[in-house]
């Protein structure tokens, strides 16, 4: 069966989908994305993902309004057309194609490169970006693939992680947003994979734990669950929020009030990563340091079970 994608309101065979060479995402990485998990033909916590993308667009002045993002029925149609019940779903949104006239604005010196997203943003603020004062329509694309979670042994025995040698910069305006400028994170993840690690962890400029390249991080010490504060800043992960909800339901003390040092991480009773794809992934080694007894702990195990049960409940037909 041919693979289908959803592009700008149309369900199309993947090989028929086209994006303009003037698209802001293609030219400058001006765009956002969400990676989501579908089960039973439905996307888990879809509204949380869409709300996060819309907040990021507003913060970064990208003209991608919440109203432009697809409704649940669109995702379900795509999943059904691809005969997928469980899937990894990606939504990509950019400011859209910028007319060549935008790159010839009279307020820009000849030869100066123009960011198409800034042109679109200018239009959204009432500043003419082209002769017709047109605001480019956003490019909205959804793709769905077979869900390929970590193997069962990763949950049974845990995984290793490494520490990134590059700090996470709090002043970087893209930190805590899922932008298309993702190469530095992918490079750090690739470095981890070459070291036979599942993830690379970022610390901030104050040497406090921030997050993984594609995950949030939690530690457990003396029954208390801790994770870096959103003000670090870190990505406000959908799975991160779910785990904090589950902790409250299960009576587990949890907070993000205090910074986490490298010693806190290494001396933890349990460490785990969260994302909607990995759910709750136990970490048993940080580079050469074994965490506690070197096996997934009870808090991690209970939260993983709770997460799986919650997805089954919320995504049931």
Description:
This protein has 317 residues and is α+β, with helices and mostly antiparallel strands. It has helices spanning 24-28, 46-59, 72-81, 116-124, 152-157, 183-194, 238-250, 262-266, 298-314, and strands at 4-7, 10-13, 32-39, 42-43, 87-94, 139-146, 159-163, 199-203, 209-212, 216-221, 224-226, 253-255, 270-275, 279-286, 289-290. It folds into 2 domains: 4-146, D-amino Acid Aminotransferase, Chain A, domain 1; 152-314, D-amino Acid Aminotransferase, Chain A, domain 2, CATH 3.20.10. The chain has 9 helices and 15 strands. The strands form 2 sheets. Strands 7, 8, 9, 10, 11, 12, 13, 14 and 15 form a 9-stranded mixed sheet that branches. The protein has a 6-stranded antiparallel sheet with strand order 2-1-6-5-3-4. Strand 8 (199-203) and strand 9 form a beta hairpin.
Tally of separate domains? 2
Q: What is the chain-wise order of helices and strands? A: EEHEEHHEHEHEHEEEEHEHEEEH
Termini gap: 24 Å
Q: Just give the CATH class of the largest domain.
A: Alpha Beta
The largest β sheet comes out as: 9 strands, mixed
User: CATH superfamily membership of the largest domain, which one?
Assistant: D-amino Acid Aminotransferase, subunit A, domain 2
The helix fraction, in percent, is: 25-40%
Question: Which structural category fits the helices and strands?
Answer: alpha+beta
Count of alpha and pi helical runs:
9
Please give the radius of gyration in angstroms. 21 Å
**Uncertain runs with pLDDT below 50, 5 residues or more?**
101-111, 119-133
CATH architecture of the largest domain: Alpha-Beta Barrel
Strand content: 15-25%
């Amino acid at each position: 069966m041919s693979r289908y994608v959803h592009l700008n309101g149309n369900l199309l065979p993947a090989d028929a989908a086209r994006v303009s060479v003037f698209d802001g995402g293609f030219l400058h990485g001006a765009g956002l994305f969400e990676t989501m998990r579908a089960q039973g033909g439905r996307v888990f916590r879809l509204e949380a993902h869409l709300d996060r993308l819309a907040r990021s667009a507003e913060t970064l002045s990208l003209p991608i309004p919440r109203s432009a993002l697809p409704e649940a029925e669109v995702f379900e149609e795509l999943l059904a057309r691809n005969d997928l019940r469980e899937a990894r779903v990606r939504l990509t949104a950019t400011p859209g194609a910028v007319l060549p006239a935008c790159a010839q604005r009279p307020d820009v010196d000849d030869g100066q490169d123009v960011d198409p997203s800034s042109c679109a943003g200018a239009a959204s603020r009432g500043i003419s970006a082209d002769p017709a004062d047109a605001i480019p329509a956003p490019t909205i694309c959804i793709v769905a693939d077979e869900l390929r979670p970590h193997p069962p042994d990763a949950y049974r025995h845990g995984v290793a992680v490494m520490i990134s040698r590059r700090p996470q910069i709090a002043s970087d305006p893209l930190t805590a947003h899922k932008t298309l400028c993702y190469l530095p994170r992918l490079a750090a993840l690739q470095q981890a994979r070459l070291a036979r690690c599942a993830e690379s962890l970022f610390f901030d400029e104050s040497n406090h734990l921030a997050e993984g390249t594609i995950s949030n991080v939690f530690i457990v010490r003396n029954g208390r669950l801790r994770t870096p504060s959103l003000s670090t800043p870190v990505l406000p992960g959908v799975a991160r929020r779910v785990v904090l909800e589950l902790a409250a339901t299960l009576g587990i003390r949890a907070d993000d009030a205090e910074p986490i040092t490298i010693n806190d991480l290494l001396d933890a009773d349990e460490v785990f990563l969260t994302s909607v794809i990995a759910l709750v992934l136990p970490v048993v080694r940080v580079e050469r340091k074994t965490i506690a007894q070197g096996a997934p702990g009870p808090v991690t195990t209970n939260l993983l079970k709770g997460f799986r049960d919650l997805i089954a409940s919320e995504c049931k037909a």
